[in-house]
Amino acid sequence: MNSIVSFPDRIPAVEFEERRFQVYTDRQLDKIEVIQNLPEDTLFEMKVVASVLPFRVNEYVINELIDWNRVPDDPIYQLVFPQKGMLKEEHFERMARMHREGAEKKLIQSVAKEIRDELNPHPAGQMEMNLPTLNGEVLEGVQHKYRETVLFFPSQGQTCHSYCTFCFRWAQFVGDKDLKMASTDAGRLHGYLAEHLEISDLLVTGGDPMVMKTKHLVQYLEPLLKPEFDHIQTIRIGTKALTFWPYRFVTDKDSEELLDLFARLVDAGKHLAIMAHYNHWQEITTDIAEEAIRRIRATGAEIRAQGPLIKHVNDSAEAWARLWKKEVQLGIIPYYMFVERDTGAKNYFEVPLAEAFNIYREAIKQVSGLARTARGPSMSAGPGKVEIQGIAEIRGEKVFVLRFLQGRNPDWVQRPFFAKYSETATWLHELEPAFGEDRFFFEDEYDQMRKGNG
Questions:
Q1: In CA terms, which of 138, 188, 199, 351 is 20 to 30 Å from 58?
Q2: Cut 0.90: pTM above it
């Protein structure tokens, strides 16, 4: 039997000083020194938008990722700092009036909630569908969207080191318990997984699970090494920490314990995939970011990169091509280019599907085969993940060629279908069937699923 290489031997011998994690929220906007040089109108706009949508940023992002000479056009600045255009004009003016008039905090919060309720806080039926049960009770903090995949939202990981302004899970962070998905019940999660042998993949998500202390992650993942969980072949951890706080994997007090957990999962035969959220090549230009990547890969885990196409941040083929090339250079697998979801500040960030496909195609043309693993543009819609495969002219009609990469019904997967071409559509529900059809092939069945909350 081959001996297992001890974990410390896998870690590259690169030393970094421990960093203190310093975070700022909407209550500390006036404490962020560098933004005090911005125009007063800009600071007021930040305050107004942060009253409605979540804001959180840390010193690493501020000092090492943002090029302040390019503000407001710097992509990382757009990624983390509130912009006026994120709210519809009528919403912005309503909230701005509250601040100008010195309204009480409770009134501001009440108006903010009314605005949020109009922003589709949980797209794709997240709160109505996907909800599994155990012993006749709904399993909180768990979603079973696809046959083989379960999502778990540990309560200790329902925040992030910084917040993305475009985040489709922004509702997790606004303090409304009715909008939050979370659980601390490891036993019920494991009970559900043990009963469902069709599940092969567990996705731990958030928020960001890497905000958790390692001891909490251990209680959720270590039991999966038992024989009764042999059917759980893949464990995925969704995280933005490789961008927003790479020190988590290098100098944080329990970073070695975390990497040891990764190594033990891999050595036990589990496929461990770190689902890294990257939006721009600027995110992986620091030494600490590269070191975090090296250390994770040294455990045997792989890193897959995904992120949405976002106006003001990465809406160019050059940005994506450069990102994918850098990822491949560092041993990361380009995985998905998503379409910005129909929620929150979508009016500011969305890109028309036709433009999204052209950006994807032009970017793919610039990279080698190793980067062409990136699939997209993909919409994570209610019926499933729908990819735009192309734009074509068929029987004299210009159409989008679409297919399911994943579906509520597995029989939908890889089945091509067609929608009328549109210059303005930004999401699946805005598309119409081509060739005179009344409905897409999956719609009747999906409607039945929704009625049954299945």
A1: 351
A2: yes
